[in-house]
Amino acid sequence: QVQLVESGGGLVQAGGSLRLSCVASGRTFSRSDMAWFRQAPGKEREFVAVVNWRSGIKDYADSVKGRFTISRDNAKNTVYLQMNSLKPEDTAVYYCAAEKIRGLYAYWGQGTQVTVSS
Q: Residue 65: pLDDT above 90?
């Protein structure tokens, strides 16, 4: 059974940092794109960041560029999201996702809450 489990969320003051982790089990994702999404209360889920498995190229939502960094450790089957200079508008449930098939991610974690206080 494939599972993605996020951790590292919590409550932080504006300007602070958090590092999210997503550990995959059940299979390896070394040949899969891995990404982070988030969903704020009352809003749709939105893309945050992705790392391409083949090229290593990373892409970010404009709202997080320069503040967030996605990385992966294939040996640990883990993807990370380092979040710096956090803002209250970054408050959301953060989800990791793996393996994009025909434009949709096949595997999702259960989410981890990030709350940024002003």
A: yes
